[in-house]
């Protein structure tokens, strides 16, 4: 489980470079940096004793930097507690610098070269090799060591982040430890939340080592774990004076007669998600099919641009969802451009995204506005089609790709997956961590598009609306459990 420092504000995620600046700022403010290392290492030792009381021996693997320094402090604390401890170093101790060198000097235990380590039953590994700052592949010898420990089945406690996980992107750098438990300091890092890094951390503890919150917040970028604090104050309160149009009119476009289900899922999700009125805009050929399945969702015939132009004449029709099961990409593009030019809010999904393959700049041009009013919801394949150059840039992680795409689009990007990233053109981003794997089922994306439409229709700003909808979608999936389908997912939607 994760222990958070605070829940009064969105949970900050600090990339490794920002955390390095926090450490430097703390030292420059007069805080003893060795004292911070002592608290960090002792927290690791306490976690080791708490989580692995049956360990026959603790094996501390120390790297060349401050992560290794934390390991030497942990080794000293464990030895004082009476545990059997042995220490192995990746480098000659004479090569250590700064606080890491000081921590090693006062450690009473002998330090052996890491090449001498051979896993034995009953040992617990404390990984203090590299932590969150890793940006390159691990050395071959370390990769081989990780494989040997994995094959031996020994539990691992990771200091900061399992070695081999890129703290900024969550990617695996050659090999990575699969920790049973991890201890990090002050805040989580993106690598703790993004995949596959999240799957390697085990249970996670965030320990406050005493750096003032003002220093942490001064270096924080606008990157958070997705949660209700992000949209607090933006949710629309119910009023006795409400009527259905005040709560928002959402129009969802249906596909042709043989592909109506996706649009209905979006429409029903929008209604359940809080819109006051939802209309399914259906081709005439599909009216009877849709009418047979709808009750509270309204139904209207819209076949072509003239029909849509007439529909847009009513300014109360503010919010649209286009793409689920739509099929006709040429018509999807024309409809999207009409809504952009009419100043409407749009959730663009599925076929609507594909209709603009490689043409994000066109969407930017037609939806350009001081306050974003376009939300796109691509999965990985759709993201590659809409933003091919960004998707192909291997130097970028998922957060960086989503932010670059949002900037290019001038709108909100919901980059879907088990670690969905919501990004805004002003540089804000959030990562959803609670959505379960059961959402990998047909129609769940259509439901999400409808919920976003509802939140937009309620008047919530686009970034906050997307964050709230992604969270609401994941919470409904958790309530639905292992029998989740897109249809019963809708029935589990609750205000969040």
Automatic annotation (TrEMBL):
Its cofactor is Mg(2+); K(+). In the C-terminal section; belongs to the NnrD/CARKD family. PANTHER family: ATP-DEPENDENT (S)-NAD(P)H-HYDRATE DEHYDRATASE, ATP-DEPENDENT (S)-NAD(P)H-HYDRATE DEHYDRATASE FAMILY MEMBER. Homotetramer. Residues 19-217 form the YjeF N-terminal domain. Binds 1 potassium ion per subunit. The keyword rRNA processing does not apply. The keyword Transferase applies. GO terms for biological process: metabolite repair; nicotinamide nucleotide metabolic process. GO terms for molecular function: ADP-dependent NAD(P)H-hydrate dehydratase activity; ATP binding; kinase activity; metal ion binding; NAD(P)HX epimerase activity. This is Bifunctional NAD(P)H-hydrate repair enzyme. It catalyses: (6S)-NADPHX + ADP = AMP + phosphate + NADPH + H(+); (6S)-NADHX + ADP = AMP + phosphate + NADH + H(+); (6R)-NADPHX = (6S)-NADPHX; (6R)-NADHX = (6S)-NADHX. K(+) binds at residues 67, 127, 163. Residues 227-496 form the YjeF C-terminal domain. Its EC number is 4.2.1.136, 5.1.99.6. Pfam families: Carb_kinase, YjeF_N. Keywords: ATP-binding, Isomerase, Kinase, Lyase, Metal-binding, Multifunctional enzyme, NAD, NADP, Nucleotide-binding, Potassium, Transferase. AMP binds at residues 416-420, 445. CDD domains: YXKO-related. Catalyzes the epimerization of the S- and R-forms of NAD(P)HX, a damaged form of NAD(P)H that is a result of enzymatic or heat-dependent hydration. This is a prerequisite for the S-specific NAD(P)H-hydrate dehydratase to allow the repair of both epimers of NAD(P)HX. SUPFAM superfamilies: Ribokinase-like (SSF53613), YjeF N-terminal domain-like (SSF64153). PROSITE patterns: YJEF_C_2, YJEF_C_3, YJEF_N. It comes from Agrobacterium albertimagni AOL15. (6S)-NADPHX binds at residues 66-70, 131-137, 160, 262, 325, 379, 446.
């Amino acid at each position: 489980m994760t222990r958070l420092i605070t829940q009064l504000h969105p949970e900050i995620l600090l990339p490794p470079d920002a955390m390095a600046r926090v450490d430097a700022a703390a030292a420059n403010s007069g805080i003893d940096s060795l004292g911070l290392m002592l608290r960090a290492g002792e927290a690791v030792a306490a976690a080791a004793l708490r989580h692995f009381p049956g360990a026959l021996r603790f094996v501390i693997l120390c790297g060349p930097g401050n992560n290794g320094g934390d390991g030497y402090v942990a080794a000293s604390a464990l030895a004082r507690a009476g545990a059997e401890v042995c220490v192995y170093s990746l480098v000659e101790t004479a090569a250590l610098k700064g606080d890491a060198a000081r921590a090693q000097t006062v450690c009473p235990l002998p330090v052996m070269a890491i090449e001498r380590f051979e896993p034995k039953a009953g040992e617990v590994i404390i990984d203090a090799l590299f932590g969150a700052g890793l940006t390159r592949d691990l050395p071959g010898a370390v990769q081989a060591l990780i494989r040997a420990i994995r094959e031996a089945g020994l539990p691992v406690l990771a200091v900061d982040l399992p070695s081999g996980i890129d703290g900024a992107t969550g990617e695996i750098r050659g090999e990575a430890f699969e920790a049973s438990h991890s201890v990090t300091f002050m805040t989580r890092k993106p690598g703790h939340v993004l995949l596959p890094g999240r799957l390697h951390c085990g249970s996670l503890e965030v320990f406050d080592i005493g750096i003032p919150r003002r220093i942490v917040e001064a270096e924080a970028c606008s990157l958070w774990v997705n949660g209700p604090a992000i949209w607090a104050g933006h949710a629309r309160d119910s009023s006795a004076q409400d009527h259905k149009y005040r709560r928002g009119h959402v129009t969802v476009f249906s596909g042709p007669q043989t592909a109506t289900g996706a649009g209905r899922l979006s429409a029903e999700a929008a209604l359940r998600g809080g819109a006051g009125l939802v209309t399914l805009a259906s081709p005439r050929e599909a009216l009877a099919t849709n009418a047979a399945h709808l009750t509270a969702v309204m139904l209207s015939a819209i076949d072509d641009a003239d029909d849509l132009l007439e529909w847009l004449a009513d300014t109360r029709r503010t919010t649209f969802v286009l793409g689920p099961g739509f099929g006709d990409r040429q018509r999807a593009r024309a409809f999207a451009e009409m809504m952009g030019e009419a100043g409407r809010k749009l959730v663009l999904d599925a076929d609507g995204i594909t209709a603009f393959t490689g043409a994000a700049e066109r969407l930017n041009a037609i939806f350009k506005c001081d306050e974003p009013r376009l939300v796109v919801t691509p999965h990985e394949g759709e993201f590659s089609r809409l933003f091919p150059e960004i998707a192909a840039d291997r130097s970028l992680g998922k957060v960086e790709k989503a932010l670059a795409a949002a900037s290019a689009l001038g709108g909100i990007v919901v980059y879907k997956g088990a670690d969905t990233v919501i990004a805004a053109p002003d540089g804000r981003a959030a990562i959803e961590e609670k959505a379960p794997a059961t959402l990998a089922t047909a129609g769940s994306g259509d439901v999400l598009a409808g919920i976003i439409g509802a939140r937009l229709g309620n008047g919530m700003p686009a970034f906050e609306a997307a964050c709230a909808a992604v969270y609401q979608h994941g919470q409904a999936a958790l309530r639905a459990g292992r029998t989740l389908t897109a249809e019963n997912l809708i029935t589990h939607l609750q205000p969040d």
